[in-house]
Design a protein that fits this description.
single chain; about 160 residues; alpha+beta; Alpha-D-Glucose-1,6-Bisphosphate, Chain A, domain 4; 7-stranded antiparallel sheet; about 25% helix
């Protein structure tokens, strides 16, 4: 990954065990419940969470004025449960064939491949998550989408944590 790329870094504390936050990132059924900005659903989340394994995710929005799908694919580069997850992300079509980000309306300088780094640490009953997305600039819609998704993750983790107790 080119370190000259812009990046967004988001830190969040979740009131639940580290294993639950890890599962939110690695269990496709749980991932589908929180991923994506408000108004988006995730009808598809295929994840082979092993080093070299692939992932393919679809975010979908259905609105009266328009509907939209965005597909992403990538490869897991590092999987150290429950502390560190690193994967690449590229835009693709429904078949997993890579497409240019610009065909989806991204700026000309948006990279074809980005990298997501998730680090989790447990402190008492709280899990600290630090997520860095290399290639997505802070202050952009992509960064805002991550923050909205993490709000959903927090709500889901809190409700799931109560059920697990």
């Amino acid at each position: 990954m080119n370190q000259d790329n812009k990046w967004v870094r988001i830190e969040r504390d979740f009131d639940c065990p580290i294993d639950l936050v890890w599962r939110m990132w690695t269990d496709p059924a749980l991932f589908k419940k929180w991923y994506g900005p408000n108004g988006m659903s995730v009808p598809t989340a295929e994840m082979d969470v092993t080093v070299g394994g692939t992932r393919k995710v679809c975010m979908s929005m259905q609105a009266p004025e328009r509907s939209m799908e965005m597909w992403f694919t990538g490869v897991y580069k590092e999987v150290r449960a429950p502390h560190r997850l690193v994967y690449t992300e590229s835009m693709c079509d429904a078949d997993g064939t890579l497409i240019s980000p610009q065909t989806m309306g991204m700026p000309d300088n948006f990279p074809d491949i980005t990298e997501v780094i998730v680090e989790l640490t447990q402190t008492g009953d709280t899990t600290r998550m630090v997520m860095v997305h290399m290639g997505v600039e802070a202050g952009t819609a992509g960064a805002g989408g991550w923050n909205q998704a993490f709000d959903k993750l927090a709500a889901l983790a809190t409700s799931s944590s109560r059920v697990d107790q």
